[in-house]
Amino acid sequence: MMSEYLLEMRGITKDFSGVKALDGIDLRVRPGECVGLCGENGAGKSTMMKVLSAVYPYGTWGGTILWEGRELRCASIRESEDVGIVIIHQELMLIPQLSVAENIFLGREPRALGGLIDFDRMIIEASKLLAGLRMGHINVAMPVSNYAGGEQQLIEIAKALSKNARLLILDEPTSSLTKSETAILLRLVQDLKARGTACVYISHKLEEIEEIADTVTVIRDGRYIGDAPMRDMTTGDIIRMMVGRDMSNLFPREEHPIGEVVFEAIGITCLDPENRERRRVDNVSFSLRKGEILGVAGLVGAGRTEMVSALFGAYRGPHSGEVRLDGKRISVRTPQEAVRQGLCMVPEDRKAHGIVPGLGVGYNITLSVLGDFTTAGLIDENREFSVIGEAIRRLRIKTASPVLPISNLSGGNQQKAVISKMLEPRPRVLILDEPTRGVDVGAKYEIYRLMFALVRDGMSIIMVSSELPEVMGISDRVLVIGEGELRGDFINDDTLTQERILTAAITPTRRAA
Ligand SMILES: Nc1ncnc2c1ncn2[C@@H]1O[C@H](COP(=O)(O)OP(=O)(O)OP(=O)(O)O)[C@@H](O)[C@H]1O
Ligand SMILES: [Mg+2]
Questions:
Q1: Fewest 10 Å CB contacts: which of 208, 235, 249, 361?
Q2: Which of these, 172, 123, 182, 120, lies nearest to 150 by C-alpha position?
Q3: Which atom of ligand 1 is nearest to the CA of 415?
Q4: Ligand 2: distance of its center to the CA of 310 in Å?
Q5: Which residue lies with its CA nearest to atom 18 of ligand 1?
Q6: How far is CA 175 from CA 46, 202, 301, 450, in A?
């Protein structure tokens, strides 16, 4: 009998050296259906999809996969692609040095007679593909590294689409996309659905799940919790299934004393490294008080990351301006110097700047302070372990052991480890650039609570975030940056609305003649 399902995964189990990551999970997808797969960080979503796409080949996991009612036993990613299962991974998999076209056709290059790669055809095909996806502005002959994170993500999606997927798996596809890029992506998925392509969509942004999913499947701690049609569910229901309890208040805002100005940025200007005529950040000045949480809002690409990188000595292009701590000018030419002066930053792009993938979780956490544990060249391991243990407990980082390579952690747990790392030097001013990207609702709550605990202890925090509800839910004051300019500096009281922030973001400041 033909199955009503395109895909049925039954009782899937998977363990990593004795630790159960999946403990009997079911997942069903009908043809043309979009299933939202939801669960906290470390619940097992990515692992489940790696089982399906044969990143973990048949035989390395338990349970059954049925594809159109027949058992599927794929030994390689290639075999799963051949039946039409295509995955877009949570972490980008493009090869930076290769061109866009080469990346898209990697391993499937069009060949000319005689078997040589037909580069001309490859370029033409790739251009056609991107044009059809409203990405015609991308030059497919250029190396992928020329494009920003969001564009790279869209290139990865184009690559997946070129494989004629029958089931497309999107694992956190929008974490580095702007709002408009996200809209493009969601429209693409809608188009595919209309053409009969099924998809599994994983995202911590529940509003995307609400928009795109027909059915929601929730897993928790490697176990199947349940599924239901999206139209019968609210995001509150999904959260309750994910975390196992009600979460009516997503932002644990607390009263806390705010003191004197401790930190000042004066006339921060950053030039584009490729085009020095262009100012990515244009003469931005602001101050920060003791115990204050300063939210930095703006559209993606407005220059917020460049600005905070300059404050931390990590901006790669020419820049100028002055940074003061307690009224005294400090020198922050490198991140090391910034850390020594009491300034720390958790970067936006954890893969490029935040972690050393092959090293253990614990070592990644203490990397920023290893000097502290070293006496006469010897590392005091006991002290190091207690610091690591404390960090893992405080943010509930889900790891089988502190020596597990950090790249084996789930995406959100890697993010928590990066935050822990930057707390270890006990900075006076902490800069967080998109701190909750890829982090589940429960863990977001824990990060916010941690932020409040830190400011109560007298730390000051600068938080760049593209999530306006988060900026408004957590900050004491909100800076708005637009096209590199400071366009607003608001006290976050009852009169501040999302609309006022957005209006400020797109309204140029009048310049002196
Ligand atoms: N290669 C590995 N070795 C050891 N443990 C692993 C490995 N890959 C994943 N795990 C563990 O399996 C569990 C599930 O991880 P997974 O990446 O599937 O979570 P996730 O639901 O995708 O989370 P997130 O939302 O944070 O991306 C985690 O506890 C993780 O640490
Ligand atoms: Mg994941």
A1: 249
A2: 182
A3: 26
A4: 31
A5: 44
A6: 15, 11, 14, 22
pLDDT exceeds cutoff 80 at 367: no
Of 54, 41, 76, nearest to 9 (Cα)? Answer: 54
How many angstroms is it from 412 CA to the middle of ligand 1? 9
Closest approach atom of ligand 1 to CA 409: 31
| 7-243 under CATH 3.30.420.40, yes or no | no
Cβ < 6 A, ligand 1 pocket: 16, 21, 39, 41-47, 90, 398-400, 404, 408-413, 440
pTM for this model (two decimals): 0.79
Tokens of 143: 């190396």
Query: How many Å lie between the centroid of ligand 1 and the Cα of residue 410?
Result: 4
What's the rounded mean pLDDT across residues 250-257?
A: 87
Residue range 421-448, pLDDT digits in tens: 888 888 999 999 999 988 888 888 889 9
CA distance 100 to 150: 14
Q: How far is the CA of 413 from the centre of ligand 2 (A)?
A: 9
Token readout for 252 is: 């644990």
Give dist(CA 150, CA 27) in Å, integer: 29
Q: How confident is the model over 27-83, as pLDDT tens digits?
A: 999 999 999 999 998 899 999 999 999 999 999 999 999 999 999 999 999 999 999
CB under 5 Å of ion ligand 2: residues = 46, 90, 410-411
Nearest residue (by CA) to ligand 1, atom 9, is 408
Reported as a single tens digit per residue, the pLDDT across 293-333 is 999 998 777 899 999 999 999 998 999 999 999 999 999 99
Per residue in 481-508, pLDDT tens?
Answer: 999 999 999 999 989 999 999 999 988 8
Residue identifier of the C-alpha nearest atom 29 of ligand 1: 42
Ligand 1 geometric centre to CA of 87 (Å): 16
Q: Does domain 249-342+427-513 have CATH number 3.40.1190.20?
A: no
Q: Where in the chain is the domain with CATH 3.40.50.300?
A: 7-243, 249-342+427-513
Residues 410 and 90: their CA atoms lie apart, in Å, by: 10
Gap from CA of 48 to ligand 2 centroid (Å): 9
| Cα dist from 295 to 135, 298, 413, 460, whole Å | 32, 10, 23, 11
